[in-house]
Amino acid sequence: MTTTIDWYNQTEEDEKKLILREYRALLRALKHNIKKGDKALLRHAFELAAEAHKTTRRKSGEPYILHPLAVARIAVEEIGLGVTSAICALLHDTVEDTEITLEDIKREFNNNVAKIIDGLTKISNVVDLKGDTTIQAENFRKILLTLAEDPRVILIKLADRLHNMRTLDSMSREKQLKVASETTYIYSPLAHRLGLYEIKSEMEDLSLRVTQPDIYNDIQRGLKETKRERSRYINEFIKPIREQLTAAGFSFDIYGRPKAIHSIWNKMRKKQVAFDEVYDIFAIRIILDAPQDREKEECWKVYSIVTNSYHPNPERLRDWISVPKGNGYEALHTTVMGPAGRWVEVQIRTRRMNEIAEKGLAAHWKYKEETPTAQESKLDAFLEHLREVLTNPNTDTLDFIQDFKLDLFTEEIYVYTPTGDMRVLPKGATALDFAFDIHTQLGARCIGAKVNYKLVPLSHTLSSGDQVEVITSSKQHPSEDWLQFLVTAKAKSGVKNYLKEDKRKTAEQGKSMLKKKMEHLNVNLTQHNLNELVHYYKKPSALDLYYAIAVGNIDLAELNTFAVYGDKLHHPHREIKHDTRELADEELLKQKHGKGSELIIFGERSDKILYKLAQCCQPIPGDDVFGFVTSGEGLKIHRADCPNAARLLANYGHRVVKTKWAKNKEISFLTGVRITGLDDVGVIQKITNVISGELRLNMRSLSLDSKDGMFEGTIMVYVHDREELNGFLNRLSALEGISKVERLESHEA
Ligand code: MN
Fold first, then answer.
1. Residue 288: strand pairing partners
2. Taking all residues of the chain, what is their mean pLDDT, rounded to a whole number?
3. Catalytic: 437?
4. Where are the domains of the chain?
5. Residue 151 Cα, ligand 1 centroid: separation in angstroms?
6. Tens-digit pLDDT profile for residues 695-712
7. How far apart are CA 279 and CA 344, in angstroms?
8. What is the distance between the alpha carbons of residues 134 and 471, in angstroms, rounded to a whole number?
9. Ligand 1: distance of its center to the CA of 67 in Å?
10. What is the model's pTM?
């Protein structure tokens, strides 16, 4: 709908008049439904909103207040909501976009209004399809949660969205696409589930117009071009029925109505046909005035009259009067053979049913006091079910949304419990879905079912009218392959939650098995070591690693082949380095200057600062050290007496970071010792005795060269710190026949 007013050339007077006219139209729409006190409140809401939005205009240039006014009218006229909702609709953008606070609303109106406005404010920004699907799903869940709290929030939101869709033209193309895709993703399915067929249909048509304008225009043109021919056909079809219904004393409306453009498009796509090959582009509707206690029989009488004139297709009869749809829809649908051999769909319903078909949930409220009918409790059950699933923290939202959306669009079947209670399930539902529908615990223990007294497996697909008795066993547990044949969101999330919980418990065992093994290896289950294992075994998460260990898919004996350095585990295929991570130079310099104080490093264990121990001097804890920010290799720690130290300090002072060691006894560092002495038979034995026997050091290599009765050797050994190294050097010097012992300046091994 395009507005033809040039908003920038309106006088203020004209605008005021127009705004007041819209307000009066809203009042008229509410006229039967408004008490004196409410009228004052409504007026107050209008004035407050008008004042708050005074300086704002919509993209089209129109005064902003026209939007809340339009939303309120949609809420009242098209959804059938009452005065409280109209007040909320008028105020729906105030808390978010203006100075008005929720407190103000609570004070000026009441708690109820404030709660609804709060809900509307919260969901207004949750839909953002730019984000990844997880975020979208999380947002959808939030919307459903508010729906479960007070359905009016969603109904007003739908009115808001519908008005935005109707006024998309002034938006940028990008914004149009965004709004349209949100609408098809979230709002039209919701409108459908709440029984708001008109709104759902209009939303889908408006979305199609934005997303596929060519197709939309083609179909619209097609409808226009065939309109005259269609009207003639419809009149011819209606004539005998009208006469007979009138003769039988019915009070009714009868008319033909083209189907929505998107639904014609769906048919063209599904059947791969062109527009003029789609036959049922219209349906005949008969709306009856009938007292509520005689609705059903009157509708069937009309059916009988229709089928006197035209032959029905028995396979296309739908009785949604005896058993309404899950969203509350009631009607009798039949398809009959009309003039010229064309199938024509005829929809028969009473005025009350028609109102429900158009206004959905809200119409149910209206009739609630008079008739506590079955479909209300079904809607209640739907809301209850939503609340249950959504508030379960274990539910994977993305999965749930997908399953839920499937639920929304599938056809329904009606099945019965042994005591004759009816349950509505989506088409294709199995005996196991039925069990979960009754209760999650019943589903979890289900081993089979009796359908119409015959034993069937869990995966048995149910048909409408089946009577189902669930058979359980306390020994039964849900299993992964159940997901293959389950179709309902409730059953699927029930099984998934169970499996997740089960996996978590099993993984706990795996974790303690791993811990025990690590104790044997003298290492802790640090984050580093855990990452190393997860990486090596190619598991997506620690949980999966633990689980694989618990069920025996990983042999812990394999850990014996891992190298252990200090508290670190290195898997056999990994090159041994002091670290594998790097930090950008800039980042380091920033840290340096930001802190200005000393950098404290924790041997190899620092999680915060990434560094390497310089290969040229192999510092160990206790050494005087400094950090040097290299170009490209991150922070390197050098000994203060490193041969390179002077050059680095002199030329690159700005890159030097003061560094000292934290006290740390758990980690050992590789260092080198050069030793010379008399080449005698027992010398290697003596040295290794000192290293492994007395000092219990971890030796990596020992190499000796003999020449002219003297030997020169290099020992690579792990020490914890400088103190331990000095002890080692002293002990070696004290050995008989050793002439010289010194720490390697630089390490060439
Ligand atoms: Mn709005």
1. 252, 350
2. 80
3. no
4. 7-170, 220-370, 411-487, 580-661, 669-743
5. 17
6. 888 888 888 787 777 888
7. 8
8. 37
9. 7
10. 0.56
> Domain spanning 220-370 has what CATH number?
3.30.460.10
Could you list the beta-strand ranges (E) of 209-251.
Answer: none
Q: What do you get for the CA distance between the two ends of the chain, in Å? A: 82
CA of 93 to the centre of ligand 1 (A): 5
Q: E strand or H helix at 326, and its extent?
A: none
Counting every residue, how long is the chain? 749
**How confident is the model at residue 486, as a pLDDT?**
93
What phi and psi, each to the nearest 5 degrees, are found at residue 686? -65, -45
CA dihedral 87, 88, 89, 93 (to 10 degrees): 120
What is the pairing mode between strands 738-743 and 669-678?
Answer: antiparallel
The pair of structure tokens assigned to 191 is 């409108």
Is CATH 3.30.450.40 the classification given to domain 411-487? no
Q: In whole angstroms, give the CA distance from residue 69 to residue 19.
A: 8
CA–centroid distance, residue 122 to ligand 1 (Å):
13
Reduced DSSP (H G I as helix, E B as strand, rest coil) percent helix, strand, coil of the chain, to 5:
55, 15, 30
Distance (Å) from CA 545 to ligand 1 centroid: 49
Q: How far is the CA of 732 from the centre of ligand 1 (A)?
A: 84
Kindly report the CA angle at 163 between 157 and 166, in degrees rounded to 5?
A: 140
Put residue 593 in one of left, alpha, beta given phi > 0 → left and psi -120 to 50 → alpha: alpha
Please give the distance, rounded to the nearest whole angstrom, from the Cα atom of residue 637 to the centre of ligand 1.
60
Query: Ligand 1 centre and the CA of 7: distance in Å?
Result: 19
Q: Which residues contact 75 (CB under 8 A, 6 or more apart)?
A: 81, 85, 86, 89, 155, 156, 159
> Looking at the predicted structure, is the pLDDT value of residue 445 above 80?
yes
pLDDT tens readout for residues 272-293: 888 888 877 899 999 999 998 9
Domain 669-743 class in CATH = alpha beta
Q: What is the pLDDT of residues 38-80, one digit of tens each?
A: 888 999 999 999 998 888 888 878 889 999 999 999 998 888 8
Is 723 among the residues known to form the active site?
no
Q: Which fold has domain 7-170?
A: Hypothetical protein af1432 (1.10.3210)
> pLDDT class for 442, splitting at 50, 70, 90?
very high
Return all residues near 721 (Cβ < 8 A) that are at least 6 apart: 620, 621, 622, 661, 664, 665, 669
Which of 38, 97, 641, 679 is flagged as catalytic?
97
Which among 14, 51, 96, 236 is annotated as catalytic? 96
Span from the CA of 400 to the centroid of ligand 1 (angstroms):
28
Average pLDDT over residues 501-529: 86
Question: What average pLDDT score do residues 407-411 get?
Answer: 61
Model pLDDT, residue 321: 92
